[in-house]
TrEMBL record:
Protein species of origin: Papaver somniferum
SUPFAM superfamilies, per database record: MFS general substrate transporter
PROSITE patterns in alphabetical order: MFS, SUGAR_TRANSPORT_1
Localization in the cell: Endomembrane system
Membrane topology (UniProt): Multi-pass membrane protein
Biological process per Gene Ontology, one example term: nitrate assimilation
CC terms in the record's Gene Ontology section: endomembrane system; plant-type vacuole membrane
CDD domains to which the protein is assigned, alphabetical: MFS_NRT2_like
Major facilitator superfamily (MFS) profile domain boundaries: 36-436
Transmembrane segments: 36-60, 101-120, 127-146, 166-185, 197-217, 328-348, 354-379, 391-414, 420-439
Pfam families linked to this entry: MFS_1 (PF07690)
Name of the protein: Major facilitator superfamily (MFS) profile domain-containing protein
Membership in a protein family: Belongs to the major facilitator superfamily. Nitrate/nitrite porter (TC 2.A.1.8) family.
Alphabetized UniProt keyword annotations: Membrane, Nitrate assimilation, Transmembrane, Transmembrane helix
Amino acid sequence: MEGLIQNETKFSLRVDKDSKATEFRLFSTAPPHMRAFHLAWVSLFACFFSTFAIPPLIPVIRDNLNLTDSDIGNAGIASFCGSIISRLLMGPACDLFGPRLASSALSILTAPIVFATSLASSPRDFILLRFLIGFSIGNFVSNQYWMSSMFSGNVVGLANGFAAGWANVGSGATQLLMPLIYSYITSLGVASFTAWRVAFILPASLQLVTAWMVLYYGQDLPNGNCNHFRKVAEEDDASPKDSFLRILCLGLKNYRGWILALTYGFCFGVELTVDNIIAQYFYDRFNLKIQTAGAIAASFGLANFLARPIGGVISDEMGRRYGIRGRLWSLWVVQTMAGVLCVILGRVNSLSASFMVMCGFSLFVQAASGLTFGVVPFVSKRQASLSFIPILNLVSSIFLYNTDIMFFAGFTPFSKETGISVMGLMIIICTLPVTLLYFPQSGGMFCGPSMVNSQEDYCSLARGDAEEEQ
């Protein structure tokens, strides 16, 4: 009791026994919880801005570097390959060094590569740079890891939704701003092929500034940084000492992780795919100016400001009313609707209709990402005396290791319009496995729980079975 009183007086927000916040105040900057939230989304915003700064300028870059459609497609694939590798590595990095150091280090290491974009002189350089810049998106893992370390289960869906949603706005902001920056530079009399190179100073500088902010003002956990708690854990004989390899093997055997990985690949993975192709799609199909195509493409990414957080809000609200069943049903309905709208997007032929359908599609597919992370924290719920839980490494890595397979939809032998419709069908089909998710203590979409002991804590990814908390 004394510990709880001390916790309540120590923090500006109400907290649980692990010092995780049980409330979420969006416009507060109170340390450490809300300060971590704002640092996390701002830092990831800069990474999204850098990663997607290239697509809106593709019409100019392809003329300068003599890029073919194949080169552009390969560069996009390379970018996603880089992001997948970095996501896998970021999980262990967060465990070893904490999300603060892992996030800032990755941003600082990739910022010079963004600067180097201005030096590209061949298709090979272009593809290599896109691969390396894609690594910065690994900060998505540290973003969600950080939120799961700071916020309790009753608001973690909301925190994850806002942290990732506001960060993803960077992919829309860059679609809007990079063409404007390019146009402004050319208006000063700078040659077109030089102007697009100069424009990359902004995203690289933004990434460096936010990285240093995270490093100096951030804190890994409510009660301190990970290095301190790691030392405590090593001295505490009661602390879990499972090796990462053992936890990984047990986690890979769990079908829930694979289903959610697939589901996430067809919401967030699709979103990243569209971010890469949408400006060029509107530019080529409707013969628009580069600024107009960029503005239309920007509206897709900017919808994250509300769409993904709304997904988190819906998940938490449905969870309060109907438990895990409500979270799963809302995820399935919203993501299926995203698939339907994606099919329609590839079929409509007018600019106005395409824009309206795209806006609806963006709202649903981004809300689905927030809904997915409303389910994620409940897959592994091991309670520990420390907020530093190594199992989060596995959770983050598996769920963020989406294959981004739908990226290839824009670069198949089909036309881009047909590819987009096929992508929509795949979203619908690959969302169906959500109906198979079942948690013994919480139930599933169609069945109630099989465990009635409220003291039991389902630790599927940690141990592969349920364990009773003492």
